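Why this split exists: single-chain examples teach little about how molecules sit against one another. For that reason, every record in the complexes split bundles all components of an assembly together and asks for one structure covering all of them. Below is a record exactly as it appears in the raw files.
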Amino acid sequence: MPTLAQQVKHHAAELGFDDCRIAAATEAPHAAEFHQWLAEGKHGDMAWLARDPARRSDPRIVLPGCRSVITLAMNYFPGDTPPENPDPGYRIARYAWNDDYHDLIEKRLKDFDTRLITLGGTQKRYVDTGPVLERDFACAAGLGWNGKSTMQIHRRLGTWFFLAELLTTLELPADAPFGDHCGKCVRCIDACPTRAITAPRRLDARRCISYLTIEHKGPIPEEFREAIGDRLYGCDACLDACPWNRFAATSREASFHAREEIFRHRTRDFLALDDDSFRALFARSPIRRIKRPRFLRNVCIVLGNTGTPADLPALHRSAADPDPLISEHATWAIERIHARHPAP
Ligand code: SF4
Ligand code: SF4
């Protein structure tokens, strides 16, 4: 007869999770550091992180009677190269090459929850959006370790996986931690274009391109615009640099593989999107969540860094956009292109 923990892990594998490990439900080991990070304002515009930090630090406050945290990994690696995009090209963080993972993982977690109810458990399920310090519990459970980039590293999946967790009232034996395997490596710190990793495991989100191009709502500070380069949405630089990714295999979930329809667009083509065509192109994509003005802001940054005079007509139309977020960034891009290509 399989043990309760074996049954739980069997369900996880059946539901398509690539790893499942268990941590005891205690206060998160890095609760104090998290509170300090918030106090220093390093979470930028991500106000949701600062809401109710005590709940984030202790799963027993979130789910009374919580005994265990089931930590789960799902590989999303869509491969090394996206479908070719037309010159001058742009980069989108790999996790956003296709469908929003929240939808897929949430559905699997719901099924998982139903199965655990039949085993006598009461659960709360989370993928990113939840209140728990998920990386702390993943480390405690041995689901990899927290790398110097602050990203979770898994010995088989590298950095290309989503974390999810179920808080449960089931009493499950905790798995052993795997330990820190960064050693003397500092590749992620050296690779960061904006020096956002200020020390090992210290991220100033306000300098991070992922934050600036996704979470940050307003104008992108000028000091970071050039460093963003051709990154249209998110940044994989610290992940690409990690040697633990040498073991990464392509995800078996087709909905994480690149959506060619998106990558067929030239950078300037995106400027022609109105609200409706933006929503249609990015239906089910995580990119849809930042909405058209923020996305076009990012398009202008990329064109400012990579564009040519051929991009100027589209940028001039955007410079007249009624939304100041778009018009200001388009004007900046026009000036940058003129500076690179002075009129003869
Ligand atoms: S995502 Fe990019 S900008 Fe952010 S820490 Fe990593 S390398 Fe730096
Ligand atoms: S790049 Fe090196 S230091 Fe950074 S997370 Fe990976 S192993 Fe750790």
